[in-house]
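Recall that a protein's primary structure is simply its ordered list of amino acids. Everything else, from secondary elements to tertiary packing, is in principle encoded there. The following example makes that idea concrete.
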Amino acid sequence: VSIHIEDVKLCTTSRFPQCLTAFSKLLHLTLKRDTHRLMETVDCVAAIQRLPSTLEKLELNFQGSEACFLRTAIPAGSVQQSSAPLLPNQAENPNSSIWSIKHFFPSLKVLALFDWDGSVPPSRITWTKHEFAELPDTLTHLHAFSFQKTPLEDYKALPPGLLILGQQRWRSSSTPELRRALPRSLTSLGTF
């Protein structure tokens, strides 16, 4: 099952569709709402974590989409209050700023976080080896706002079968050092 939901109108009140959890065989999900958030970040985290674990493609294109994966988006006590699934034991990787995506979506192949933000700088993921460790090994496509703060040596921690790595802005260009640090499986490096 594939679902693509897009809200292109301005000043609407669309939210993350709660009915998506009923699609137990959901494989592909795209949610798009340019220049606006879908809901409070903590509620969005809960909604994402309740999606079926069968998901292979998750494309989120709305203001604050990256923030929905940050641990800091989950205030103490709010997980139980918002009826979200309990987070897995985070003691395994206490240095990661994101919750364990591989725990919730072990078969995920595509994770695309397009965060078209307006004037307010949103919370962004600083991608390091610790965050890459929270991604499933099945991941072949990763798109995020920026990898500019990623140390070169940390690219070695990307999922082994990654084919495409994209971001809204790259370092000045693809340097020889960056190309050497990237996985050999990578076939495309670019911007969107």
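The first strand starts at residue 2 and ends at 7. Residues 41-49 form the longest helix (9 residues).
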